[in-house]
């Protein structure tokens, strides 16, 4: 009895050590991946926020790839050549299809999703702020739930309302449209942590908001709102949020929303 207990006591630690090493290796890899994504995201946001010209608000593919490689080098602590080689390797990573499954994915493609995620986040912030402000000023839009089982309520514009806002570019040209667009711009600036350096309040009671930004920043936000209005005009609400549809419309309409 004593010997059996002794064998068990010695066997379990070795088995636990094997499982722990495997689990820890996977955990460390995912942790490394998260750090890589965070560094890459931070670099993209900083470039967007501190751009010295309107052209730099829209980074080229070369610039994005350079930021991606630099983030990998910082995380892996290796040379650029070795980092570039590792970026081409396929790794088992979590994917949405199959649901909650794993698949072999090229490392840089997985991390580079940060670009589209950032763009979607900025678009959501800009559109939500614009629609809410235009709803307050002009009563446009109605609150509804995305599905019968959802308790979340969203403010949606109808196709006719979108057509009215797009007619003559009134969504940005008339007084209400300009105010709503400025609110959307301020929201996007807040999303990129630029409020302290780009937004100030002036006047006796600090009632006047002054936004200091590049024309490229303003154009970036207005293009996002315009694309949303076009999508709502042309497609049912359920399709507007589909990433594939957004990408197709960007290419067809010439709206580069980096």
Can you describe this structure?
There is one protein chain. This protein has 258 residues and is mainly α. The chain folds into two domains: 2-111, no CATH class; 116-253, no CATH class. The chain is 66% helix and 10% strand. The chain is built from twelve helices and six strands. The protein has helices at residues 2-49, 61-76, 80-87, 107-111, 113-138, 159-166, 170-173, 175-191, 195-198, 215-234, 237-240, 243-253, and strands at 90-95, 101-106, 142-144, 154-156, 199-202, 208-211. The strands form three sheets. A two-stranded antiparallel ribbon has the order 1-2. Helix 1 runs antiparallel to helix 2, helix 2 (61-76) packs across helix 3 and helix 5 packs across helix 10 (215-234). The longest helix is centred in the N-terminal third of the chain and has 48 residues, at 2-49. The N and C termini lie far apart (69 Å). Residues 1-19 and 248-258 have low confidence and may be disordered.
Overall 3D shape: globular
End-to-end separation: 69 Å
Strand order of the largest sheet: 1-2
Write down the secondary-structure element order.
Answer: HHHEEHHEEHHHHEEHHH
Q: Into how many domains do the coordinates divide?
A: 2
Number of strands: 6
Helical proportion, percent range: 55-70%
Biggest beta sheet summary: 2 strands, antiparallel
